[in-house]
Each structure stands twice: as C-alpha cells, then as structure tokens.
Specification:
about 450 residues; mainly alpha; Serine Threonine Protein Phosphatase 5, Tetratricopeptide repeat; Collagenase (Catalytic Domain); 2 domains; about 55% helix; disordered N terminus; disordered C terminus
Length: about 450
C-alpha cells in the first residue's frame, strides 16, 4: 500500500478509535497551554546577535532600508478594538506579561481607545487578501482603524520610513481562520509593532521569519526587544550609532553570548525566498510549485554553511511530491529531519516539525514502535512552542501506532489528547471531530488541488 493510501487509512482508523471513545464537550475543551516560561538570553555570539539586531531594525522585508532606529519613547498601551477578539484577550495578556518580564517593555492593555498607541482590529480574511494577498495579518504605523487605512492606503507604502519615532499603529488580523493562526498573528504583529519591522528567513529561532514555523515569541525575540528598549538607545539613532552601542549592551544583557565566537552564516537569499514563496503559494499549479521547491532546495543546498533553509525546502518538496512519488517524498522528509537534528538539536521546534513528517511515514510503513518513539520525542517541543496543531498531529500518530501495537487503552488516551489539542488549535466549535481528522493533512500540507 502506498504512503498516500496508508494516510487515508490512517484517517479512517482514527475516526474508528474516536467512535469507541465516549466524549463530552468538557472532555475536549478543557485544555490550554500553561504559562510560558522561556530561558533568558541566547547562547550564541553577541557579535552575531548585534548583526541580527541591526538587520531587524534598519530594514524591511520589502528590501527598503531605514535610516533611523524606531521605537516607542513612552509607555505602550494596546486596545483590542473588535469584540470578535474577546476570546483572545487572555492570550494577549499572557504575551504582554512576558514582554514586561522578559523584555522590560512598559506595555499593557487599555479599555480606552484614546489612550492606546496600538489598536488591534479584526478584518475578514478576504478583505485583508485584497490589500496584501500574501500576508495573513499586518501592521500599519500611524493608523488607527481599517476604514481610515483604506482611505489613506496609497500613502501607506513608506509608512515605516516616514516615522521619526513610533507613536501609534494598527494591527489588522482575521478571525475567520483557526485560533492557532490568530494567536500566531497576535504574537508576531504585537512584537513586531514595537520596532523590529524586518522578517529574516536566515534566522531559525524567531517569530520574525516568514516561514511561520514559530508561533510564539522566542528567547531571541525577547532579547532583541530588551536591547531595543534599553535607555542607551533612542528613536532617531543612526545605524552606525546603534552599532557602536550594541557591544556593551549585549555584554550586559546577554552574558551567555560574551565568549561565544562568531559562526559562519549564509546571508539572506532573495533567490531562495522567491523560490520558497512560489512553492508555498496555494494559487499556483502543483507542478509549478514542485518546480519552485526543487529550485529552493538546490539554492539552499549550495549555501555555505547549509542551514535550516534546506530543511524547509525539502519538507515543502516532500509534501508536494507525496502523491506522485511517496518513496521520494519519504527520503526528502528523512533528509530534512537529519538536517534539523544536526543543525538545531533534538529538542528544537523545527526538528519536531520535521519529525512529524518522518513519524507519519513510519506509521504508513507499519513501524509502530518508531512512530511512538518519534511522537514522544517531539511532543515536548510542540508543547513548549505552543503549537496545538503540531501537537495534535503527533498525538494522532501516536494513537494509531499504539492501536497497531495492541495497546488499546493507551491509544484511547492519546486519541483524547489529540482531540483536545486539535479543537484548541482548529476551533471546532460545534464539537464534531472532522477537523481533527484533518490534522495530519494540515501538518503535511497534502494539497488536494
């Protein structure tokens, strides 16, 4: 049986397991991630981190350069402008608590719109896509609401470079999507609205990366924000003046990186970014996407040193070729997994993301013990990274593998865990389980078109 057909059989088996497990609404809704406690600092060269800081704060992902440092020079208050976002206020509060504790930023929610520097507004996905088709959510400095933004949109392209200091911004995000996507958008846009406006594919451990693998602010992100809001830095400083201040700031704020030598790192690659974005575009024909993924993989393989971008390319290529050549796709998944383990370590979220692909292939081959081991190995990273969909997928695979081993009781428990996290990630409000059965497809991105 091919991998694809085995994955179809897997979905049916999961449905059968659910049928023999009595479920109540409380069974699958009473779950949340525990408060996040991240390690302080980053254990890599402070000289490298200084370069990262400058790239994040003096450029935009469009390629536009900024000639001055931008940040808020007063306490920051956030107003949630849309009732549709009420369910996410606790998530926002948790993020703001981390920003106060880990980054030292004076930031909090306010119920008074006039007192807010940052306003968050829900906008239907279709409307967002008409403005920025490739963006799930975005920030507009100097704006307050969607209607005013649409009126002034022709003047919005240079909004960041026109700022002398940050005084206000609007964040627009959809709610007609999964709760996982909304929470990810909140983390990325709130933290980026504070000043680090660039996205860098070359950075593996940040939410400010357009591959969207990280869904919550990482220790790297908090360190960058802590640096930005140190009293030695001010809005309007030039890149040269900021660079001169960074060594002392990093020595004080990131002692873990004081004696770490610089690492060889491949710079941003516009060619790779264009190829991977074409490969991930749902609007393009599958063959064109697969061709773009092969180009991305080739470019990434030629980088020196090779880094996580090759793993991203291979996982994308594997997902796009799975139906036509499952054996080849399995090889891509395995290679991506080894790259992630070697470059980033066993406990990294990127390694877990590659690991779920390998686990699915192992299950399809009837290697139940390997599937269980992989799910156990990588569930902690999915949990600490607060990726409910990834965690649901790992638990789904674990449940099916345990059933294959004859461990029915343990399989039932794993299945319940999977359902809980799937509902938390997918937002299956009617209590039905169809979305959970799509968790593996969602993780593997096995497109039907």
């Amino acid at each position: 049986m091919t991998v694809t057909r085995r994955l179809s059989a897997l979905a049916l088996a999961l449905g059968g397991l659910a049928a023999c497990t009595p479920l109540t609404d409380d069974t699958i809704t009473s779950i949340r991630f525990a408060p996040t406690i991240m390690p302080q600092g980053v254990a890599r060269s402070n000289a490298d981190l200084a370069a990262d800081f400058l790239d994040l704060t003096f450029a935009l992902e469009s390629g536009e350069k900024l000639d001055r440092l931008l940040r808020y020079e007063a306490p920051i208050r956030i107003h949630v402008a849309s009732p549709a976002l009420a369910a996410y206020v606790s998530d926002i509060e948790a993020l703001l608590a981390r920003l106060r504790r880990e980054a030292g930023v004076d930031i909090a929610l306010t119920d008074t719109p006039a007192k807010a520097q940052i306003r968050i507004q829900a906008v239907p996905t279709a409307q967002l896509a008409r403005v920025y088709p490739a963006a799930a959510c975005f920030i507009v400095p100097g704006e307050t609401d969607w209607t005013d933004f649409l009126r002034s949109r022709p003047d919005s392209l240079l909004r960041w470079s026109r700022q002398k200091t940050l005084e206000g911004a609007a964040i627009f995000l959809p709610t007609d999507t999964t709760p996982q996507d909304v929470r990810d958008c909140l983390h990325e846009e709130i933290t980026q609205a504070l000043g680090p406006a660039n996205d860098l594919y070359r950075l593996p451990d940040t939410i400010w990366n357009d591959d969207n693998l990280h869904g919550i602010a990482t220790p790297f992100d908090m360190l960058m924000l802590r640096l930005l809001y140190q009293p030695e830095l001010k809005s309007g400083m030039t890149r040269a003046a900021t660079a001169a201040a960074l060594p002392a700031l990093l020595a004080r704020e990131n002692p873990r990186g004081r004696d770490v030598p610089r690492s060889a790192r491949h710079p941003e690659s516009r060619a790779w970014a264009s190829a991977i974005e074409a490969a991930l575009s749902r609007d393009a024909p599958r063959e064109d996407r697969a061709t773009a993924a092969r180009i991305a993989a080739q470019i990434a393989a030629e980088m020196r040193p090779v880094d996580h971008r090759l793993a991203v390319s291979l996982l994308t290529l594997g997902r796009l070729t799975l139906r036509q050549d499952p054996d080849e796709a399995a090889r891509y998944f395995a290679e991506a997994y080894e790259i992630s383990r070697r470059r980033l370590g066993q406990t990294d979220l990127r390694t877990a993301h590659a690991g779920v692909h390998v686990a699915a292939v192992a299950l399809a081959a009837g290697k139940f013990g390997s599937t269980v081991a992989l799910s156990e190995r990588h569930a902690p990273a999915a949990r600490s990274g607060q990726n409910a969909i990834l965690l649901a997928g790992l638990m789904s695979l674990r449940a099916e593998a345990l059933l294959g081993l004859g461990r029915t009781s343990a399989a039932r428990e794993a299945r319940l865990d999977s359902l809980r996290w799937a509902r938390y990630g997918f937002g299956d409000d009617d209590g039905k389980l169809a979305r959970e059965q799509a968790a593996i497809t969602e993780i593997l991105r096995i497109d039907e078109g």
